[in-house]
């Protein structure tokens, strides 16, 4: 009996399995969506005991500061460093392995450095102090504080003088003040020719004129010339550069009764010859040969939100006129496709900081006038491309006695 039923039992079990197997195979989400994709990239979380430290990935500075997460990194090995002025960092760097789908940790400890000071004096007061080549905004005598220990350079600039040491090297010692006395020597500065040119991005003749002029400026260099470019509304008020400062552009053009572009002024005198390299070269050489009635010195620095210009002018000889000081903020290295074919602009005027009429100078021969001015950095401006141009022009005439720039 048992042997005859066994096959029946096996048949029943097989039948039940046959019924439930399709059901088992069909169980689960039948919505048709794919399962979550397998991650292919990873992250590095960079932390430190001080916020605001710059994070470097394989030597390249990242946009975020500590604490920061570096997302979407390919699996592999990376070198992570952090930097913060005035702090030492431990460890100096970390080798971090990134695994797909995981977050690695890079942790640093920053320690505030003991800092020192430099007390700077000069044989002629009022010189602008440069620290490691950058303007400090201070004038002699003054003390620079909060400096990192180590080797640094100090220089002092003042119109009509040059420092005897010319960027002397010194050592800042922690928790102490280093005294620096700078000897200023009379400087026989030659004339730096002021070139002021007016243009418009829809001005067809300006293409050849501007190109020839820029080539001439580059040939002479900024030890011989200073330059500012002003865009007016002639022939089109849609000019990109004109629209950013129309009031001053029109006022400056009105000062010289300019009715057409291009218009170039060399040393304050209108250039009326054909725009050829030999013609421009001849006029610039003639202007440079004139003994300057002033010396000019200028330095500048871009801060987080402002461009700060520090400088001085020294009157060398009597002129018999009411001179005006002009301080101009310009932007260089602008790539822009203009309607007339010009695609590079190297001295666009952003602002006359003392207004179109400038500041009246009431100086006698030997007198020095110092100044410090600042202007907010525009949203479209590139801070590292900003420069300052300073010149002294006649208040009653059109001569430009001397100029200088941070270029």
- What is the mean pLDDT? 88
Q: Helix/strand-derived class?
A: alpha+beta
Total helical elements: 4
Strand residue content = 35-45%
Cα radius of gyration in angstroms: 34 Å
Give the uncertain stretches in residue-range form: 1-29
Number of strands: 31
CATH fold field value of the largest domain: Immunoglobulin-like
Care to describe what's here?
The radius of gyration is 34 Å and the shape is flat. The termini are far apart. The strands form nine sheets. Strands 24, 27, 28, 30 and 31 form a five-stranded antiparallel sheet that branches. The protein is 15% helix and 45% strand. By secondary structure, it is α+β, with helices and mostly antiparallel strands. Mean pLDDT is 88; it is low at 1-29.
What's the helix and strand layout?
Elements: H1 2-26, E1 42-48, E2 54-57, E3 60-65, E4 68-73, E5 76-83, E6 87-90, E7 94-98, E8 103-112, E9 116-122, E10 128-131, E11 134-139, E12 142-147, E13 150-157, E14 161-163, E15 168-172, E16 177-182, E17 184-186, E18 193-199, H2 205-220, E19 225-231, H3 246-255, E20 263-266, E21 269-270, H4 277-288, E22 294-302, E23 306-315, E24 323-331, E25 334-335, E26 344-345, E27 348-352, E28 359-361, E29 368-376, E30 386-394, E31 400-405
Parallel strand pairs: 1-8, 9-16, 18-19
Antiparallel strand pairs: 1-4, 2-3, 2-5, 5-7, 6-8, 9-12, 10-11, 10-13, 13-15, 14-17, 18-20, 20-21, 22-23, 23-29, 24-27, 24-28, 24-30, 25-26, 30-31
């Amino acid at each position: 009996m048992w042997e005859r039923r066994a096959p029946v039992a096996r048949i029943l079990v097989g039948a039940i399995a046959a019924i439930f197997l399709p059901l088992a195979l069909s169980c689960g989400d039948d919505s048709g969506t794919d399962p979550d994709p397998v991650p292919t990239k990873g992250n590095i979380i960079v932390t430190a005991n001080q916020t605001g430290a710059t994070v470097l990935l394989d030597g390249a500075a990242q946009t975020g500061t500590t604490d920061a997460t570096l997302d979407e990194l390919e699996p592999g090995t990376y070198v992570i460093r952090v930097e913060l002025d005035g702090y030492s960092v431990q460890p100096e760097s970390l080798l971090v392995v990134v695994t797909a789908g995981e977050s690695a940790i890079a942790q640093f400890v920053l320690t505030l450095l003991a800092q020192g000071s430099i007390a700077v004096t000069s044989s002629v007061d009022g010189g602008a102090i440069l620290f490691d080549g950058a303007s400090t905004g201070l004038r002699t005598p003054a003390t620079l504080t909060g400096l990192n220990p180590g080797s640094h350079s100090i220089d002092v600039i003042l119109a009509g003088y040059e420092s005897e040491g010319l960027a002397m090297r010194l050592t800042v010692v922690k928790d102490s003040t280093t005294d620096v006395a700078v000897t200023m020597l009379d400087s026989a500065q030659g004339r730096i020719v002021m070139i002021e040119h007016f243009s418009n991005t829809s001005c067809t003749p300006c293409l050849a004129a501007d190109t020839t002029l820029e080539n001439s400026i580059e040939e002479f260099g900024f030890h011989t010339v200073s330059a500012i470019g002003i865009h007016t509304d002639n022939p089109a008020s849609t000019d990109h550069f004109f629209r950013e400062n129309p009031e001053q552009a029109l006022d400056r053009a009105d000062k010289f009764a300019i009715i057409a572009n291009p218009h170039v002024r060399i040393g304050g005198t209108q250039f009326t010859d054909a725009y050829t390299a030999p013609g421009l070269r001849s006029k610039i050489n003639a202007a440079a040969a004139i003994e300057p009635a002033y010396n000019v010195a200028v330095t500048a620095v871009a801060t987080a939100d402002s461009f700060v210009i520090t400088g001085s002018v020294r009157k060398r000889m009597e002129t018999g006129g009411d001179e005006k000081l002009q301080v101009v903020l310009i932007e260089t290295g602008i790539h822009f496709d203009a309607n007339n074919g010009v695609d590079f602009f190297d001295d666009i005027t952003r602002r006359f900081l003392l207004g179109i009429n400038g500041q009246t100078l009431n100086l006698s021969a030997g007198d020095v006038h110092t100044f410090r001015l600042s202007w907010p950095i525009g949203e479209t401006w590139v801070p590292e491309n900003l420069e300052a141009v300073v010149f002294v022009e006649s208040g009653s005439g059109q001569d430009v006695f001397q100029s200088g720039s941070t270029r």
